[in-house]
Amino acid sequence: MALVLLVAACGAPRDATIRGTLVTVGTNALDPDEPTAGTVEAHAGRADGPVAGKAEAGSDGVFTIRVPAGTYFLSANVDRVLCLSDTSVTVTAEAGARLDVVCTSA
Q1: Which one of 7, 53, 57, 89 is least enclosed by Cβ atoms within 10 Å?
Q2: Which residues of the chain, if any, have pLDDT below 50?
């Protein structure tokens, strides 16, 4: 029985990690980027893909999302403004990645 459990544990998919910072950019070019709190979601495969994982960014804007290995786009909602990552990120269990989400304030 121990051998069966060991084989099952070895074959289980492991999560990958996406880390980043959620920031708001002001409309004035001289305004500094401001870390902001909010919920960040990882969408599988495309920007409007299914949500595979999500995390809360603290007041420092930092977040960590655990997802299955794959390719993801990130989104966040800050003060009712939908913010999207401008690129995707591909992660594996062996190699996580970093992708920031930038919101432009109105």
Answers
A1: 7
A2: 1-9
